[in-house]
Design brief:
The complex is a heterodimer of chains A (870) and B (103).
Chain A: H1 6-31, H2 36-65, H3 70-88, E1 96-100, E2 105-111, E3 114-119, H4 124-137, E4 141-146, H5 151-167, E5 175-177, H6 184-192, E6 199-201, H7 206-213, E7 219-220, E8 227-231, H8 237-249, E9 259-265, H9 266-278, E10 281-283, H10 286-296, H11 313-319, E11 330-334, E12 352-358, H12 361-372, E13 378-384, H13 388-397, E14 400-405, H14 409-414, E15 447-453, E16 467-469, E17 485-490, H15 492-496, H16 499-504, E18 512-516, H17 525-538, E19 542-547, H18 549-563, H19 569-572, E20 593-598, E21 610-615, E22 618-623, E23 631-633, H20 644-663, H21 669-691, H22 696-716, H23 720-732, H24 736-751, H25 769-780, H26 794-811, H27 824-839, H28 853-862
Helix pairs in contact in A: 1-6, 2-3, 2-4, 2-5, 3-4, 4-5, 8-9, 17-18, 20-21, 20-22, 20-24, 21-22, 21-26, 23-24, 23-27, 24-26, 25-26, 27-28
Chain B: E1 6-9, E2 12-14, H1 19-27, E3 32-35, E4 39-42, H2 44-59, E5 64-67, H3 71-80, H4 83-88
The structure holds fe (ii) ion.
Residues 603, 653, 656-657, 722, 736 of chain A line the site of fe (ii) ion (FE2).
């Protein structure tokens, strides 16, 4: 039925669009089932067909469009088939297409679906061949919208390849085309915005590409070109002349990457121009340049005259009113005056080439940029040079997706013939040309990539102090230390209590020693600097740290700055979320050996990579393997005179270490074993030590417990209890272990409840804090308590909390903030500050329950009232 | 046939219409269940035939159900955007006027 009214015509076109897209849609659906082998067989059959028909299609395209050169169109058809095939035949486009074992990830291909492909008048058959084969390889359907002036040849190419593909098993209807008619353009417009079209693959005039981009659909378009080619004096001049002629005359200049303006070093200009003349090019004089510009440039638009696109040089000369009686390959026009305003400094898809002379590389690049930015940004540029440095400078400056070196820019840009660029008929220009890619667009751009990342192989490692001597009397080991000059870092009280002489008496024979005894309870950086200064005089080869946690921590930092004076304390103390991804870089090797001799049984600093330093009003933590001491001497003779309160405070620090490292998100089988044994020893040895303070056996067990728990936190870190204790300790000047003890009853209960928010850490795939507390209770030998209507672990968790409570009461250890004697009003007034400090403490990051700010408030509040036995 | 319900299995490739199923549609009046568990491939002609079958079933007021559809085949139905096939698979209507998520 012939349509009569405008509405009827529109309806008819809409129905036609519906039928085309539906056919393509079903084919795309069916294509999704094809294997790589099936696809490859289809691609092979299509390529063979394209090669067989290359001359026929080239001839037809030339006859239909009256553009270009048949022989060159044959070559383009072969590039689009044979060369393309060579590049893609072994590429995987179905299923898993890439394995990235180092990232534990694979890429799986998902077809795009239905593609609307535009074919330009300049490359009507090669573009169709190229896009058809690419679509088959990627299991997509394509509907071709040809250029009206080239529709017969474009559509024949599509039909031939489609028939070959279907014969090889391709789905019915996977290639289709809009027939040539006066309604072709309107039908294409309808297709542009048709809901069943998934992607527009646009190659063609600027208008079409713009229409594609404004359709609102994903589009692969290409920008306009204006290729500058810099001829540097270092190049092989005759060869450059020949390559440029090959390129610019290729298909009579219809290839958009072809040369538009040459920028020639003056030193080689005469030789080059003479070579062009000798090879059959016409060099215009100034007057002729104007004539050529009149013919070649459309005065209305300032762009090229489309009637001369792809026409032979002789015809263009004739149209310009320039008479010649011989065959001319190409017309060269010197562009005098301001280049940016020259009429011929634009894209001319015909054998007309502008040129300018320059006197330096700088000027050469700048003039090239004038052309590049004069309508060809992101497209193509070329350079002839034997100087790699010049090529690099040029490539760095020019904004082009392809910068072709020492070869024809047109055929070079196509890829695969002169270089290893991907073969294409569609040149991505990046954002410079309003495109999403600078690729030589091809199969790579016609796949949806599905990335399938497996979980990271999370690195679990274990580090601790290399040599640990742990029996009472092990201070004697110092005698065998390989050192000539020891520097002892300690506190005043240590020297008072005779500990310093116990060390000096056990130094190796002939070993000189100096001592720095000024480490207070909270050393700051000025103390560190003083100690380092003293060491510069003394020049020791070993540092012996003797004291409690503060002394040991200070000694770690002193050694770091003694060995590496250039380090910056502020840079080393940057916070981090994950140890493995932190920014800070510590030295790999330490030069001076560090021996740690703890005189309390608490921090475990002798085996941890941590050190805390006071920095003004805040405390900074430094953490690195390089901070680990080389030797730890765990000799209970140093703790036998510890007062009862310090014994208990420090034991409760160790107890907190054991409990927190056990449930930490970074805990491992290695740290669990240490934490459990530390717990068992504390429950056994603390009551016994308090009963018999001078019993070296129980002191020894307690000392070991602290070191074992130190190894556990050194690798698994601590948790929310420490965050609360750090804040409270800093604000109210409470010793660390005592501050820990007042929160323990609260945090065990808090962490044993199903978290209101789980922690997102790859190494913690399952929340197990409740069962780990239960395991601790069992390991310590506690009996399950009767708890009604509670989870499977509740009885053991209650037993553990009672045991901690009983131990605290036995030791006289305050178990709540109120029991510390801090007035409630003062405490509540400090609450906002306490909450903020605790919330920002790094310790919460390894807590098994994601610690929300309101929960921190509740933990602080809940820890005030005097404790009752749970 | 059980309780007036007709069951049929598609074996191997569905690359054209299946006469037997066409006949079952004409002959019976109860629900028709098509089992895809042994279907290995659906071609364009097979897809078109399924769509037609659903149209004919609609006009004959017979319900047709697809069962045991392998994921590869189910994805073909999904990509094809043929609503009647999704209905036969028990999916909700993807009618654009309907509210909420669509298939
Ligand atoms: Fe601690």
């Amino acid at each position: 039925m012939a349509a009569t009214t405008k509405e009827e015509l529109e309806l008819m076109l809409t129905e036609r669009a519906q039928s085309l897209t539906r056919q393509a849609r079903l084919a795309a659906a069916v294509f999704s089932q094809y294997s790589q082998e099936q696809v490859d067989a289809i691609v092979k059959a299509m390529t063979t067909c394209a090669i067989d028909n290359a001359p026929r299609l080239a001839k037809m395209a030339h006859e239909e469009t009256r553009m270009g050169v048949t022989e060159d169109k044959v070559l383009k058809n072969l590039v689009a088939s044979e060369f393309l095939y060579a590049q893609i035949k072994d590429k995987r486009t179905v299923g898993v297409i890439k394995e990235l074992p180092e990232l534990n990830m694979v890429e799986v291909a998902e077809p795009i679906g239905v593609i609307l492909g535009l074919a330009p008048v300049t490359n009507p058959t090669s573009t169709v061949i190229f896009k058809s084969i690419c679509c088959a390889k990627t299991r997509n359907s394509i509907i071709f919208s040809p250029h009206l002036m080239a529709a017969e040849s474009s559509n024949l190419a599509a039909k031939l390849l489609y028939e070959a593909a279907v014969a090889a098993g391709a789905p019915k209807g996977f290639i289709s085309w809009v027939d040539k008619s006066s309604r072709l353009r309107r039908l294409s417009e309808i297709l542009f915005s048709h809901p069943e079209v998934d992607l527009i693959f646009a190659t063609g005039g600027t208008q079409m590409v713009k229409a594609a981009y404004s359709s609102g659909k994903p589009a692969l378009g290409v920008g306009a070109g204006n290729t500058p080619v810099y001829v540097h004096k270092s190049c092989n001049v005759p060869s450059a002349a020949m390559e440029i002629i090959i390129s610019k005359t290729f298909d009579n200049g219809t290839e958009c990457p072809s040369e538009q303006t040459l920028i020639i070093d003056r030193e080689v200009a005469d030789e080059l121009i003479e070579e062009f003349r000798r090879c059959g090019c016409y060099i215009c004089n100034e007057e002729e340049v104007e004539k050529v510009a009149d013919a070649v440039i459309d005065a209305r638009t300032g762009g090229m005259n489309y009637r001369l696109v792809g026409q032979p040089a002789n015809l263009i000369l004739e149209q310009s009113g320039i008479k010649v009686d011989r065959h001319i390959k190409m017309i060269l026009c010197p562009l005098k005056g301001e280049l940016r305003q020259h009429r011929l400094a634009v894209e001319k898809l015909m054998p007309v080439l502008g040129y300018v002379l320059v006197d330096s590389v700088e000027e050469g690049i700048n003039r090239s940029l004038d052309i590049n930015y004069g309508g060809g940004t992101g497209h193509t540029a070329g350079i002839f040079s034997e100087d790699d440095a010049v090529i690099e400078r040029f490539a760095d400056a020019i904004n082009a997706g392809r910068i072709i070196v020492n070869s024809p820019s047109s055929i070079g840009g196509l890829g695969g013939v002169y270089n290893h660029l991907n073969t294409t008929l569609s040149f991505g220009c990046g954002t410079g040309g309003g495109n999403i890619t600078t690729d030589n667009v091809g199969i790579k751009n016609l796949i949806n990539y599905k990335r399938v990342p497996r979980r990271k192989n999370y690195l679990i490692s274990f580090q601790t102090t290399k040599n640990i001597y742990s029996n009472p009397g092990s201070i004697e080991h110092l005698k065998s230390l390989k050192c000539k000059n020891a520097f002892i870092i300690t506190s005043r009280s240590a020297s008072r209590r005779g500990h310093l002489s116990m060390v000096t008496e056990n130094l190796p024979a002939g070993c000189h020693s100096d001592a720095f005894t000024d480490i207070g309870t909270e050393p700051d950086f000025s103390t560190i600097q003083k100690a380092v200064q003293a060491m510069r005089f003394s020049k020791p080869d070993a540092i012996i740290a003797l004291g409690g946690g503060s002394v040991l921590d200070a000694a770690k930092i002193i050694r770091l700055f003694y060995d590496y004076p250039e380090l910056d304390v502020k840079e080393l103390a940057v916070n981090f979320l994950d140890f493995h991804h932190r920014m800070v870089e510590f030295p790999q090797v330490m030069k001076t050996q560090l021996v740690a001799i703890p005189t309390t049984s608490g921090t475990g600093s002798e085996v941890t990579p941590f050190a805390v330093l006071k920095d003004g009003y805040r405390k900074v933590s430094m953490i690195d393997e390089c901070m680990l001491p080389d030797v730890a001497i765990i000799d209970a003779q140093f703790t036998k005179s510890l007062p009862r309160d310090i014994t208990s405070d420090t034991a409760f620090d160790a107890l907190t270490h054991a409990l927190e490292s056990l449930v930490s998100t970074f805990s491992s089988d290695y740290t669990d074993g240490l934490a459990l044994e530390a717990l068992r020893l504390i429950f056994e040895a603390l009551p016994a030590t308090l009963k018999n303070p001078s019993s070296i056996l129980f002191r020894h067990k307690l000392h070991n417990a602290a070191t074992l728990a130190g190894m556990a936190i050194g690798n698994a870190s601590v948790g929310v209890n420490h965050a609360l204790a750090h804040a409270l300790g800093a604000r109210f000047n409470i010793p660390h272990g005592r501050a820990n003890a007042v929160f323990l009853m609260s945090t065990i209960e808090y962490n044993s409840q199903i978290p209101s928010k789980f922690v997102s850490i790859p190494c913690y795939p399952l929340w197990v804090a409740d069962r780990k507390y239960a395991r601790a209770a069992q390991f310590v030998g506690l009996k399950e308590e009767a708890v009604a209507d509670a989870g499977p672990y509740a009885g053991y968790i209650l037993a553990l909390r009672r045991a901690v409570y009983d131990l605290g009461r036995l030791a006289g250890q305050p178990l709540s903030v109120g029991e510390l004697g801090i007035p409630l009003e003062e405490y509540m007034a400090a609450l906002p500050e306490l909450v903020e400090t605790a919330f920002n403490d790094m310790s919460v990051r390894s807590n098994p329950r994601y610690t929300l700010a309101p929960e921190v408030v509740e933990l602080f509040k809940g820890a005030y009232a005097p404790r009752e036995r749970p | 046939m059980i309780n007036n319900e007709m069951r049929v299995r598609i074996l191997g490739q569905l690359d054209r219409g299946v006469d037997e199923i066409d006949k079952m549609l004409i002959s019976g009046d109860g629900p028709l269940e098509i089992d895809f568990s042994a279907c290995t491939f659906v071609a364009v002609d097979g897809l078109e035939w399924l769509e037609e079958l659903m149209l004919r079933a609609d006009s004959a007021k017979r319900s047709v159900h697809f069962v045991n559809v392998p994921p590869v085949i189910y994805k073909v139905f999904k990509i094809s955007h043929i609503e009647s096939l999704m209905r036969a698979c028990g999916g909700v209507s993807s009618n654009k006027s309907s509210k909420g998520p669509v298939c």
